[in-house]
Write a structure and sequence with these properties.
Length: 65
Amino acid sequence: METQIISGVDNSLVFVHVAYVIALVYFVFRNGEKKGAKQIVETLVEDKVVSRADINRWVEKNKKK
């Protein structure tokens, strides 16, 4: 008899749900990371800490690497 991780639940169902949760957390994190970076840049420009020209120069400089 095959051992089950959770009594009464098929192991493949448990694995599918674990994989789904891991993928969901990963993609939500990546999306939040991108939106958070965008919000920080917008806040810095609005508060006149940096200019858009400074940001464009930084992006072009780091795009080459």
